[in-house]
Design brief:
12 copies of one chain form a homododecamer. Chain A starts with a strand and ends in a 7-residue tail after the last helix. Chain A is mainly alpha-helical. Chains A, B, C, D, E, F, G, H, I, J, K, L: InterPro entries: DPS_DNA-bd, DPS_DNA-bd_CS, Ferritin-like, Ferritin-like_SF, Ferritin_DPS_dom.
Chain lengths: 167, 167, 167, 167, 167, 167, 167, 167, 167, 167, 167, 167
């Protein structure tokens, strides 16, 4: 949350639009909180899922959680690289994330896929909406976010097709 | 948070003291929330640390976070095995965890070690205090928690010795 | 089935209650036969399963069979370590195991999960019931069995949740 | 499609019935085209499948495609070893393969399994019908084809059992 | 070939220019067909090559085929992610691909490299020509295609230099 | 034990002599039971062996058991592929296997090798005696059994030479 | 040998019976010295063994030495975790270990196994005798020692059976 | 340094602005020389570093050198792909690189980090300044350089934070 | 060279035509000597090759030598399994092998390929000529030899195509 | 300590100066004891180190201990190869080693490095002083010791530079 | 270039002839510069090679460059171990290396091999000429350089034979 | 057997005593033939061994054969590096090797070890006797041979101790 003096000794990357450095940092912080929250919701569903496809979904969720944790790390490290320390702790995530919590009980496999699919789509869409303006400030950060969006949209497809018979 | 009907079709493990099933579940939920919170605080410090030892601490934090995530998974899966679905989402963790948040800014390496050491010791101590009574209800759960405490106390030592010159 | 002279040259482990050495050996033999029988039933179902989830169940069964074979080995080696040679051959398993056989024909995936779940739960419950008294004779054997029970109960959960929609 | 002069410098394998060299080459070419076509149809279904079992089928298809590509390579290399260059390009496959194309749209998981099962069975049956006469000309080529048929028939079983509830 | 209802339950990625969704899908389908065709031509040459450098070219072709298959998968999955099911079967590839077939007979190593180099260059050039307009519709798809073009152009260099003495 | 309707939806492999399908299935079942029994006897000896060569024999037995389990799986899966579900459970193995049990006590290393060698030779000989007639019905099944016999006969040699000084 | 100030900055684990902290540390030190001494004796025998089974014993000794070194490390790190620095240097081991040295010359394989078996049994028995009282002070340390005893007793069995013909 | 005839036989990639082909090649050559020089300076510091953090810095330098060598290779291969052979030999690097040499003697760890941090920042900044204009000529080359800049800026952060206490 | 008493304790495999046991052993011995000789000639050429393709041929020769050594081992072990100890020592190979030696001096790459190709073809042809009669005595040995012939003929193709420009 | 009869059956390596065989053996024994003692001191420091660099030193010590154990094994096996059984047990090491013990308490990281550096330098220097005379008796043993000295002197450098700021 | 005070705290290795310490350091510096320069020339040729063997040479060059980089590191670390910091930066290499640069343009494969072969031979010869005198000062450094010469001379052979047809 | 013109294009390594180049080549050829012969005798014994230790010896022989093949390759490549092509074919080995053949029949394990031990010792002794004079001509070749002798003498020890009870 602070643009600090750690960056004094060696200069920070000179963004195309240095005035937007703090703004980019704040955007990355929001994305980070969404990604951390996705990984916690994913783990929650990993423990809660039941139904004939439960085992497949249980294992798939661990792959997704792994991908979200890695993307979160990439986003946070880009923020720090730009001189902004984002907040990824539980209270900040609970306050700042735009990912809805799920109900705490056993959940049928198709419900799990449905609930998760909507949340992944929403996060992807929010980040996609910011690609253009961030590209104006910093092409390197934009490239990081294109990778994040591409990964989330592919997951969205993989979840979407599992809903076929229920839709 | 609910002792549900998922367990109807195949019976649940017959604890030595079945009346304490819900109580054990609630205890495991608290421990889960502490462990998830440790992993989020650890990641936060991974991004925030600076100082001559920053790189070593940065890498060590990833090992610790990995261990906490694995322990959290083991604890949560034991709870579900006993028929209790714990809540590990961000708002539940923010509300239920007893781990203090850290300040959001760049933090010197020795401060990072000090802050983390205190939190690990506190979590280990809280779980240790429950080993005896949980052993009375279920030896298998007790064995899981002995592993958790042993791991946390070893980390506590590895952190403690890094503070030597500052103490 | 025999407490033999192999142990003459180097003494056997001095149990807390040496009078119970043969009794512990016999208990371990029963558990061994149950575990071997589980692994044969599991393989049988691996070949017999059909239905929309057949492939997932087919692969999951190989993981379970692997775990049961390894647990059987650990239990048998603990018996021999205590000076008791258990019988794990087909006729002894057929006679001594308390695991029900399954019908020999193609079986629907949900039937497979249901039949297996009940058998795993029964074996886990029988071993759990002996944890206390064996702990009185030998803490090391108890520790082996706590691992066996913990593994079986986790499998019981993983099978139980796959029955959700059928229950 | 041509028995060429590449083989002049070092003689070709002396088949039991050298007069059938070209005939064996042509048969291998047909089998090659069927196997390549199976791999393209398999990839098509990998992208098109939807339904509750979509993820399992999606992953299973990649394993099958891998096996068909490897078998196709073995078959083609046996043909070239005998001095015959087979045609495995798209127009030759489109013209020569006896595998039916699938409709180009999203397909439900059970439809995917059904469509694939029929095609695998047909290819296996066609190759099996030629085992005897090819064995008369060349035992080594027969051995290659026995491996191909054995692999396809095992896949046929793995697909067949997934249709249980729909049949 | 169809923009279908699979996408109803969870919304599709909101392209910058949603009106161009079908157009982007059709372009990806053409690129997919070119890449599949390259992989079939590459395999054909793998079996047909002769000459002093035959072994090196034979092995290099397998690396190229592997890369084209992977790129084809990435392109097809991006199309499906956008809601468009492309056709990658043999008759569609034979009809839609713009890659010329090669003659079916043993081919000298330098001819193989020459024929392949021209085809790779042509495919790279066609995709490069579409980078700009696709970037206007969807930055994520553009990023996928930049990777495809970069890979093909590097292959083009690796092939080009092998022609040195013949040019 | 039953030729069932699982095979209705996609046809079974068309054996050279379809009338012998059930007969082949019954033969495979007998071989399966012998192989499973060998693996249980092998594990029994793994736990019972003593003598100066005990460690070498103990480790060698695990390799043999691994090979028998894999061969048993291959044989059973060939039976199911042909439409016949074999019985590999403990009571069926105890009843149907022609492998003699060993005495349940510590056994000297040379006795272990001798007892095992005789049993492996007997199983190999029984299967070898059926190679010809099964080849008449199905070349693919014959090929599976040639691999089984080849493996058992090699083991027979490896065991035989260890008896040298005792013979 | 000293309960020092390293533990000031972050508190030590609160044992069930904190008054026994030093006592537990001293016991762990004795066990550590026995385990280090076993590993040095084992290495000595690794270099000295001769006889028909020399190679097998030579290799087995390296596995045992590896296990003892790892157990020694676990025991020493538990001591330091509790705030006690144990002495594992050569003079302390020579003075404190209760493991008898072996004679320094070539030793026949069966003598090596016999000498080692007695020493392993003695160390296991001494640690087993302390399991109960240590469990009263600290369940986590007890769990470490149960693992040590279980490992040593299994080694004792593996050595014991190699003596069969000599006993 | 020369736009040569190697490219005659198969045409070069058609840049968006073909007139800038030589200009892009020259820019890539400068970047290549900077990256090679960074790797030589990094190795020099790997041998020269001393101080309490010397070992950590020594190892970190090898990771950085590895990354710079890989980036240099990617940049050089992109230049050759475009038809331009860059000069990466010692005299060209000594003449063309804009990276300052370091003094040749033992250097304290914090001095090493400081000297390296400044050089990495300078190289990153120079390449970043060219991203826009190169993107106008060739999107594929721009994508390569975005990866280079992103990697260098992340290293810049990792070095910057190690200077905390000295700044 | 001797049908010995090693086989007394456990009976030998009962060949279809036991009278041919010695004859089969002698044939396997000849094949073994050819394969060992190929591997020595291959190594010789590995050290002697020169020319523009020298490095590729040098590496390819090591792969071929590896394959011949493995085939030799399989052939020899089949002979011993049948009760016949073959002679694979240098004087027996020098006397019995039908592989011509090569001249001892540096040899041009195309000469190396040509010399080797002729020898591989000759060995393959000799073994192929015996497939039928050996199959009459023992299907398992025939299966081993089909694998040998298949491997040699594939190598023959890989060598043959490298001669293209010289033929 | 004894030049024994193990060497009777197959003669010992004929040293250049066979009269010095026992002398070489005794020298190797002293070096062995120094190396074992270094490994015990290294492990002791692994458990005792504290300070800001504690973790780096703790991990580095395990690498050094691993290297010393491997060098000790090489030295001891060379002695036995020459027919001399050296004594590497705790009392012999305590008596014969010239490595000073360290004080048993927590030790600051820079003290650990300093204490270790001096001991490594002393051992290296003692062995270096014997290189010439041992080379006169046996070039193979000299080669082993050159490797030992080279490894120790490199460690000496790696330790020396970590002392920079304290020196 | 400086014999510095880093060596004060722990003494340097006592060379046989300590007066030659600086001289040995200077010699190692020259060898280091030659080896670094070889690796830069090798990389240059890796990018520049064309011709029918271009791919093989391109890949071989990466293996050579890897070996030269590793040898350079070994040589530099030996210098620092002896207390001399060598200069391996671009300007020092450009000034001190005796390796001739190559012309900067596409180079035919046989020219590349020829140019490289001469340079490798020259470096090997220069180092070989110093083996004797360095052995007089320090056997450990001599051993390092014997390894360097052995590696370079083997490369010289591998390059030499590729020139056969052109010579 | 010939000092040829392959070495014209790039000069050969300048030995200390160039007049001895051919002599060194001839010596290396003799050593090569001994090592190849050892590997053939070792393989022969691998197939012939029987007795209680047969399996251990059978496996150990494969390790030895692997080591001899690798040493033979190193020796031959050193000869070629010096410009001398040695003869390693079966007739040259049969004629030139000084290794005695073994009798062709089943051989008891202790006989195998005895026969092999004598042959290894003889080869080691012959090479050791040449170390000095070869060192006078070429230190690099001497270093290769010191490695060969060291390896053979270690094997000699490992074989010698297995004879203990028989000696």
């Amino acid at each position: 949350m602070a643009m600090e003096s750690v960056a004094n000794s060696v200069q920070l990357p000179p963004l195309d639009n240095p005035n937007e450095r703090a703004a980019v940092g704040e955007e990355l912080q929001l994305m980070l909180q969404d990604l951390i929250d996705l990984s916690l919701v994913g783990k929650q569903l990993h423990w809660s899922v039941f139904g004939a496809s439960a085992r497949g979904v249980h294992l798939f969720l661990d792959e997704l959680v792994e991908e979200w944790s890695e993307l979160a790390d990439v986003v946070a490290e880009r923020a720090v690289t730009l001189g902004f320390v984002p907040d990824g702790q539980s209270s900040a995530v609970a306050a700042g994330s735009r990912v809805e919590p799920v109900v705490v009980r056993s959940l049928a496999d198709h419900v799990v896929v449905w609930e998760l699919g909507r949340r992944v789509a929403a996060v992807a869409e929010r980040i996609r909406a910011r690609l253009g303006s961030i590209g104006g400030a910093d092409l390197v950060t934009q490239d990081v976010l294109i990778r994040v969006v591409g990964t989330l949209e592919k997951q969205q497809w993989l979840l979407r097709v599992q809903l076929g018979e229920k839709a």
